[in-house]
UniProtKB/TrEMBL annotation:
Identification of the protein by name: FAD-binding PCMH-type domain-containing protein
Keyword terms, alphabetized: FAD, Flavoprotein, Oxidoreductase
Pfam families, A to Z: BBE (PF08031), FAD_binding_4 (PF01565)
Molecular-function GO term, any one: oxidoreductase activity
Cofactor: FAD
Organism: Diatrype stigma
Record-annotated FAD-binding PCMH-type domain positions: 41-253
Length: 364
């Protein structure tokens, strides 16, 4: 990036920002509130942040960044976790948290959201519109956990739950909440823990078509040894996500750019530790890909395939986007982003010869 005065550029009165649009710099006390990440592993750094209140201000901010050759990242709940984002240094954070509209077209059955809309902001509008929020079948990991929901007065609920409360469970949480807060409450605060920011996290995802019990046995044994050797990483876990894919699989493969419609689940070795850098981080950098290889070998795929938001950044372009999708995607990239402005999250090439294969470039 050329040496530019971001403060002068962004605070120029000629910009005529909306009154609700805010511009912040590292010396502002609330700068962290608009730049804090979900994970601190290999983070980008910012020299300024703008929180547009209107789409016009989003456009204006991007045009300024392009004019002055300022690298930027557009963020909502603080973007993804891929270490490739760490390539951005001293850039502009385009905080879209105010662009959080939710619009439901009942006739077309289409949900339109703003760039800064979070998942929690969808529950009430979808519920009020009569749409199911959760799929009919859910699977949780093995555990002893009772989550009782009573529709009625608290006194009646306590009486109904009395036999269980008399067992003196070591952890219990009793709360009266509206329906919109039920999911965030019934899991003993799990929702808040998952969404906590500013924690060191690294996730090595892969798609799977099948579940292998023997692979789980092998991985669990490795995790047991990992926990014993690295006590500061004992909050790490292995997560299997399975969502109903009937609707996904019903869409013809060539209709959209999404390549992995036959995936039945997503394996996520999910590492958390207390301090950036140091011994544990170096161990995770080797151990994470090792576990991923175990899952890929039993996945039913001939090679690593990973759904795009779960890509770590060390995969090939073909493993992320699918080889048959890349020619059209690269043509779109060339048409709409020929200068590679969007260069930090698994960037697409502007050209894709059929013979060109390899890992995602480590430089934009």
């Amino acid at each position: 990036m050329a040496c530019v005065d971001l403060r002068k550029i962004l605070t120029d009165p000629k910009n005529v920002w909306s009154p609700q649009t805010s511009v912040r710099f590292p010396d502002d006390k609330d700068f962290v509130n608009v730049t804090e990440r979900w994970t601190t592993f290999n983070p980008p750094t910012f020299a300024a942040a703008i929180s547009p209140a209107t789409e016009d201000d989003v456009i204006k901010a991007i045009k300024l960044a392009r004019l002055h050759d300022i690298p930027f990242l557009a963020t909502g709940a603080r973007h993804g976790y891929s270490p490739t984002l760490g390539r951005l240094k001293g850039g502009l954070a385009l905080d879209l948290s105010q662009i959080n509209m939710v619009d439901i077209d009942h006739t077309a059955g289409i949900l339109t959201v703003g760039g800064g809309t979070s998942l929690s902001q969808l529950f009430d509008p979808l519920d009020e519109a009569g749409y199911e929020i959760l799929p009919p079948l859910l699977i949780y990991k093995t555990q002893i956990l009772a989550s009782l929901v009573y529709l009625g007065p608290e006194s009646e609920a306590r009486e109904a739950a009395k036999p269980i409360l008399e067992l003196n469970p070591p952890i219990k949480n009793l709360a009266v909440v509206p329906w919109s807060k039920l999911l965030a409450t019934h899991g003993f605060g799990f929702d808040a823990a998952v969404n906590a920011k500013n924690i060191v996290r690294a996730i090595y995802g892969s798609n799977t078509r099948q579940i292998s019990a023997s692979t789980y046995d092998k991985v669990f044994a490795k995790m047991q040894a990992f926990y014993a050797a690295n006590p500061d990483a004992r909050t790490s876990l292995v997560e299997l996500e399975i969502f109903p894919n009937q609707a996904t699989a019903a869409v013809p493969h060539d209709r959209t750019s999404y390549p992995w419609r036959d995936a039945q689940g997503y394996m996520l070795p999910f590492f958390m530790w207390t301090e950036r850098g140091g011994k544990t981080e170096e161990i995770v950098k080797k151990f994470g890909p090792d576990l991923r290889r175990d899952f890929v070998a039993a996945s039913g795929y001939p090679d690593l395939q990973v759904t795009i938001p779960y890509a770590f950044g060390d995969e090939t372009l073909e493993q992320i986007y699918g080889p048959d999708k890349l020619p059209r995607l690269s043509a779109l990239k060339k048409a709409w982003d020929p200068d590679n402005v969007f260069a930090y999250l698994h960037p697409l090439p502007t050209e894709y010869p059929k013979t060109a294969k390899g890992k995602v470039s480590s430089t934009p």
